[in-house]
Amino acid sequence: MKRKDLYELVWAKPLKQICKEKEITYIDFKRLCSENHIPLPELGYWTKLRFV
Fold first, then answer.
1. Three-state SS annotation for 1-52
2. Which of 4, 15, 36, 41 is deepest in the core (most CB within 10 A)?
3. Rounded to an integer, what distance in angstroms lies between the CA atom of residue 9 and that of residue 28?
4. Is this structure's pTM higher than 0.90?
5. Neighbours of 10 (CB within 10 A)
6. Domain total of the chain
7. pLDDT by residue (tens digit) across 25-52?
8. Which residues form the domain of 20?
9. What average pLDDT does this structure show over 2-7?
């Protein structure tokens, strides 16, 4: 997966959902993002979007 694709995926769905779909642990996925310098949404980001 290219960095751009990973970035778009991270900002399209909640991390828990991505981890479940890709069958990867949350910690491993966060490490992958960190290694590729991909910022993660802050806590509560997806909840805030629902109410905007």
1. CCHHHHHHHHCCCCHHHHHHHHCCCHHHHHHHHHHCCCCCCCCCHHHHHHCC
2. 15
3. 15
4. no
5. 20
6. 1
7. 999 999 999 999 999 999 999 999 888 7
8. 3-50
9. 95
